[in-house]
Amino acid sequence: MSEPTRKTRGWKYETVIDSAAPLILGFVVYSIAAVSTFKIPQLTHVGLDVFEIAGLTFVAGCLAIALGYESIVLLGGVCSLSFVGLIARITKSRQVIESREKSPKLRKIMIEKSHLVYLPALLFFTSIGIGWDIYTVLPTRTTRGIGMARSIVYSLNFFATPQFIRQNSVSGVLFSLRLTPGLIIITAISGIIPAIALPYFRRFKITGINAGPFHSSLLTAAVGSIIGVSIILSFLGIVYKIFWTGGAPTSYHYAIIVLAGLSLHYAAGTYMGRGKAESIVLQKLVDGKYDQKMILVLDPALNPKANDIHLELVVQDRWET
């Protein structure tokens, strides 16, 4: 186990260098959000300037980086094998895990670098979808005496347009800034599933045996596609109102741009923590700390009993039950 540990330590400096582009781009996005959203007269009335607002979003971005790192280490490293076993039991399938150590180097590099491209986009559009769902479920106006749980949900409603907020008003500035904690939370929620899955793309190959049948999988994929298309169409309508017609509230403009920066920074945090998460998974596999009935490890270097596993018997046992 010393070899994987040495590798992970050697990767730390390299991963930070690789993450430089999304890190810098994220801070640029925050600056654009502050400069392009608010006008000088608005900021004069609330006693703020563009640099202070940009500084506030910079702090939020740093928090998103830390959340991304901790989420992939905790969820992807410490907890992911438990999720794999749980899913296997729910679907009554077996999950086969193999090492990718012998995979072509180019393939590994492509998988590794693509992390910084597809994950920010996935986080951004997922956050938009979550925000839109919250907006459509909650009533337009809040009422007095709401509980703590509902109050937290209202704080996540960055598509809200309270009646007292008018386009380019001073109250619009304050409302926009108050959305920042909610945007961080929504980004973290969007990153839960990717954080669990990411450790298995580069160093491990995981295959499902006797997974869901074709017809149910097809219906699930179709429903997911329809929902995804509806999210994209809704987002395009919002973007059109914000950047072309100018008909959207100030808070929309600020929230959408900041959300893009948070997605970049959260993804960069997961990228920097992925090596550690993979090492934790590797150690758990070597120590046998996983559901050995539902998870089959076929690599003899990870499982001394790997040669005793016969997949044809596993499939046959599934058919007989």
Number of distinct beta strands: 3
Task: Please give the share of residues in helix.
Answer: over 70%
Order of helices and strands, N to C?
HHHHEHHHHHHEHHEH
* First-last Cα distance: 38 Å
> Order of strands side by side in the largest beta sheet?
2-1-3
Notable features of this structure?
three-stranded mixed sheet, 5% strand, elongated, disordered N terminus
Layout of helices and strands, plus pairs?
Blueprint: H1 2-18, H2 20-37, H3 40-46, H4 50-91, E1 94-99, H5 105-137, H6 148-155, H7 170-178, H8 180-190, H9 192-197, H10 199-202, E2 204-209, H11 214-245, H12 250-287, E3 295-297, H13 311-320
Parallel strand pairs: 1-3
Antiparallel strand pairs: 1-2
Write a concise synopsis of the structure shown.
The chain has 321 residues and is mainly alpha-helical. Helices cover 73% and strands 5% of the residues. Helix 5 (105-137) packs across helix 12.
Give a description of the structure.
There is one protein chain. With 321 residues, this protein is mainly alpha-helical. It has one domain. 73% of the residues lie in helices and 5% in strands. Strands 2-1-3 form a three-stranded mixed sheet. Helix 5 crosses helix 8 and helix 8 packs parallel to helix 12. The longest helix is centred in the first third of the chain and has 42 residues, at 50-91. It starts with a helix and ends with a helix. The relative contact order is 0.20.
